Amino acid sequence: MGLKYLIITISLLASNTLTLEHPLKMSFSNMTIDKDGFLELETRIFLDDLTAHIESQYGLQQVDFSTSGTKGVQVLQRYLNQNFYLKQDDQVVSLQINSVALSKNKLAVVLNIN
């Protein structure tokens, strides 16, 4: 599968999901694909949307995104697996959160996913 086809597929999936069903607002995403075909995605999700959604959807009282091992990040991983996916050669590829950090202005959580 060519890189152009993969990017178009990702764009269509994200566009459909974000506009029809996905309540979270992403401010920035950067995707790279290495020579071996491994994808890395860095995306920022606004904390106000994300925190409210995670609390209401999963019943958490205080959502913590400070480190990869927190309950908030575990729930976010589950949410991503349920709502986002990539397809390559008609096979679904799941996304895995590698690291989390807060943006400099602390308004967004920055996810590194592959």
What does this structure look like?
- The protein has helices at 3-21, 47-58, 71-83, and strands at residues 26-33, 39-46, 86-88, 91-93, 97-102, 108-113.
- By secondary structure, the protein is α+β, with helices and mostly antiparallel strands.
- The strands form two sheets. Strands 1-2-6-5 form a four-stranded antiparallel β-sheet.
- A hairpin with a 5-residue loop joins strand 5 and strand 6.
- The longest helix is centred in the N-terminal third of the chain and has 19 residues, at 3-21.
- The protein starts with a helix and ends with a strand.
Radius of gyration: 14 Å
Kindly report the spatial arrangement of strands forming the biggest sheet: 1-2-6-5
Low-confidence stretches: 15-20
User: How many β-strand stretches?
Assistant: 6
Order of helices and strands: HEEHHEEEE
Number of helices: 3
Main β-sheet description: 4 strands, antiparallel
Shape: globular
What is the quaternary state of this protein? single chain
Structural class: alpha+beta
Helix % is 25-40%
Taking all residues together, what is the mean pLDDT? 78
Gap between N and C termini, in Å?
18 Å
Q: Percent of residues in beta strands?
A: 25-35%
